[in-house]
C-alpha cells in the first residue's frame, strides 16, 4: 500500500495551481467592479454636468455654457479686479399673481468683498421715485415691468441702470426670482429658523383673500418657518412698514444661504436636485453659467464672512422723506432723497465696507417719520389726504373765525369809544 503525504510535490503543485486560479478569479472580479464603478462615476458625473449645464443655461440670459469657464480664471469675473462684486437681487411676484406680476417687491444690492471677508446687503425701497431711462419719473419697482415689455430679461437691464444711478456703484450682475422659487427652496431645505426679540403680528394685510391664514403671527424667540410662513413673514408690512419688511427680508435670505450651503444640504443629492429644478423654473440672471461657477468658488474660499446690513428709510436719521404726487390714477405715495439728490446715498453705498459687520440690521431707534403715513392701498392714501385736507380746512375756518371775532370786537370797541367821545362833547356843551 502506498501512502502520499499532503506535502508531496504533486499535492503542493496542485495546491499552488488552485491558489493561482482563486487569486486570478478575485483579481478579475475586482477589476470588473472597478470598471463598473468607473463607468457609473463617469455616467453620474456626466449626468450631473448635463443637469447643471442645462439648468444654469436655462436661467442665464447669456449663451456661454460651463465649458467656457475652463478657459477662464476667477479674475475674469466682473468686479474681481476692482475688489468688489456687486449683484442686484430682485424679488418679483411671478406670473398669475395679483398686484403686478413683474413689479419688483424686493430690490437689494449685495456686494461681496473677498479681500476683507465681508458681504454687504443694501435694501432700496420700492416706492423710491426715480428717473427711468425712456419712461420719465416713476417708482423704482416699475423699471422691471417696463423693461420686460421689450423682451425677456430686459427688465433686469433697465432696473440695473436705475440702481447704478441711485447708488453710484456698478452693478455687475442681476438675479431675479419669484415667490414660487422662494417658497419651494425653503421647503426643500426643510424650513428655516428666525429669531424674534418680541412677538410679530400682521392683522390687516392678508385678511382679504385669506392669505397666510388671514392673520399671521409669530411668538418671541426662535421660530421654524416653512416656505409659506417664510414668505408671509417676508411680505408683511401693513402693521409695520416697508422698511421693516426689507430688514426682515435680509434676515431670511441669510438664513436660507446658511442652510443651503451647509454640508448636510450639499451632501444630499435629492435636495440639491430639487433646488436646482426650482431655480431652473423660477429664476433668471444675467450671469453666464461659468460666472456662477466661479462666483461660487470665490464665496467658498471666504470663511464665515461678516455681513453689513443697510436699509434706506425715512427715519429722522434716514436719507429719505415721504410725500405725495398727483398722477393720472390719483395721488401717489413716494419717497424722495433728502436734499433732492442721491449724493448722500451714493456716498453710503460707495463706502459701505467701512461700516461694522453685524448679525442683523438694527431698526432705527426713532420711529419712521410720519409726514405722510405709508398707505396700504390707494383708498387709504385718499382717506389720509382727505383727513389732512379737512384738518387744514377746519384750521383755516377757525383762523377766519378768530379774525372775524377780533374784527367785531375791535368794531364794537371803536363804537363804544366814539359813543363816549360824543357823550363827553355833549356834557361840555351843557356846561358852557
If you had to describe this structure to a student in words, what would you say it looks like?
It is a single chain. By secondary structure, the chain is an alpha+beta fold. It has a single domain (73-383), classed as LCP protein (Aminopeptidase, 3-Layer(aba) Sandwich). It contains 11 helices and 14 strands. The chain has helices at residues 9-59, 142-148, 154-167, 179-188, 227-235, 242-260, 263-266, 269-282, 289-301, 343-350, 378-431, and strands spanning 85-92, 104-113, 118-123, 129-132, 136-139, 173-178, 192-196, 200-202, 216-218, 221-225, 283-285, 306-311, 320-327, 330-337. The chain has a 6-stranded mixed β-sheet with strand order 11-6-1-2-3-12, with helices on both faces. Strands 4-5 form a two-stranded antiparallel sheet. A two-stranded antiparallel ribbon has the order 7-10. A hairpin with a 4-residue loop joins strand 2 (104-113) and strand 3. Helix 2 packs antiparallel against helix 3, helix 4 crosses helix 5 and helix 4 (179-188) packs antiparallel against helix 8 (269-282). The protein is globular and about 90 Å long.
Largest sheet: 6 strands, mixed
Rg is 35 Å
Structural class: alpha+beta
The CATH superfamily label reads LCP protein
Query: Could you list the spans in which at least 5 consecutive residues all have pLDDT below 50?
Result: 1-5, 419-426, 428-432
CATH class: Alpha Beta
Based on the coordinates given, report the CATH architecture: 3-Layer(aba) Sandwich
- Which oligomerization state do the chains in this entry correspond to? single chain
The backbone outline, from C-alpha atoms, is globular
Query: Mean pLDDT, nearest integer?
Result: 80
Order of helical and strand elements: HEEEEEHHEHEEEEHHHHEHEEEHH
Counted by DSSP, the helix tally is: 11
- CA-to-CA gap between the ends? 192 Å
Number of strand elements: 14
* Helical coverage, percent range: 40-55%
At the fold tier of CATH, the topology name is Aminopeptidase
Amino acid at each position: 500500500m502506498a501512502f502520499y503525504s499532503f506535502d508531496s510535490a504533486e499535492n503542493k503543485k496542485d495546491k499552488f495551481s488552485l491558489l493561482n486560479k482563486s487569486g486570478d478569479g478575485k483579481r478579475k472580479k475586482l477589476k470588473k467592479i472597478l470598471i463598473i464603478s468607473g463607468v457609473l462615476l463617469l455616467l453620474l458625473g456626466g449626468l450631473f454636468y448635463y443637469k447643471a449645464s442645462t439648468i444654469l443655461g436655462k436661467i442665464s440670459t447669456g449663451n456661454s455654457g460651463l465649458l467656457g469657464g475652463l478657459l477662464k480664471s476667477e479674475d475674469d469675473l466682473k468686479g474681481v479686479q476692482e475688489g468688489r462684486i456687486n449683484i442686484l437681487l430682485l424679488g418679483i411676484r411671478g406670473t398669475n399673481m395679483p398686484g403686478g406680476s413683474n413689479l419688483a417687491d424686493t430690490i437689494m444690492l449685495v456686494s461681496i468683498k473677498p479681500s476683507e471677508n465681508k458681504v454687504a446687503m443694501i435694501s432700496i425701497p420700492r416706492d423710491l421715485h426715480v428717473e427711468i431711462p425712456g419712461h420719465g419719473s416713476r417708482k423704482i419697482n416699475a423699471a422691471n415691468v417696463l423693461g420686460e415689455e421689450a423682451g425677456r430679461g430686459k427688465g433686469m437691464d433697465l432696473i440695473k441702470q436705475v440702481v447704478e444711478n441711485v447708488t453710484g456703484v456698478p452693478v455687475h450682475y442681476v438675479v431675479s426670482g419669484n415667490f414660487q422659487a422662494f417658497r419651494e427652496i425653503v421647503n426643500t431645505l426643510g424650513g428655516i429658523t428666525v429669531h424674534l426679540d418680541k412677538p410679530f403680528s400682521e392683522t390687516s394685510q392678508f385678511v382679504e383673500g385669506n392669505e397666510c391664514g388671514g392673520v399671521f403671527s409669530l411668538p418671541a424667540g426662535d421660530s421654524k418657518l416653512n416656505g409659506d410662513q417664510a414668505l408671509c413673514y417676508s411680505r408683511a408690512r401693513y402693521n409695520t412698514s416697508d422698511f421693516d419688511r426689507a430688514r426682515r427680508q435680509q434676515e431670511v435670505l441669510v438664513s436660507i444661504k446658511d442652510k443651503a450651503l451647509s454640508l448636510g444640504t450639499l451632501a444630499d443629492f435629492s435636495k440639491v436636485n430639487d433646488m436646482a429644478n426650482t431655480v431652473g423654473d423660477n429664476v433668471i440672471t444675467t450671469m453666464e453659467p461659468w460666472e456662477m461657477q466661479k462666483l461660487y468658488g470665490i464665496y467658498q474660499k471666504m470663511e464665515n464672512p461678516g455681513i453689513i446690513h443697510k436699509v434706506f428709510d425715512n427715519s429722522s436719521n434716514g436719507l429719505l422723506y415721504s410725500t405725495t404726487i398727483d398722477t393720472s390714477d390719483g395721488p401717489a405715495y413716494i419717497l424722495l432723497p433728502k436734499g433732492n439728490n442721491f449724493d448722500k446715498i451714493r456716498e453710503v453705498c460707495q463706502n459701505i465696507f467701512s461700516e461694522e459687520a453685524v448679525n442683523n440690521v438694527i431698526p432705527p431707534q426713532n420711529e419712521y417719520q410720519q409726514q405722510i403715513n405709508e398707505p396700504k392701498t390707494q383708498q387709504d392714501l385718499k382717506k389720509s389726504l382727505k383727513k389732512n385736507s379737512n384738518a387744514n380746512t377746519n384750521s383755516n375756518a377757525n383762523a377766519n373765525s378768530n379774525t372775524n371775532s377780533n374784527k367785531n370786537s375791535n368794531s364794537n370797541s371803536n363804537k363804544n369809544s366814539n359813543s363816549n367821545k360824543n357823550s363827553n362833547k355833549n356834557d361840555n356843551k351843557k356846561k358852557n
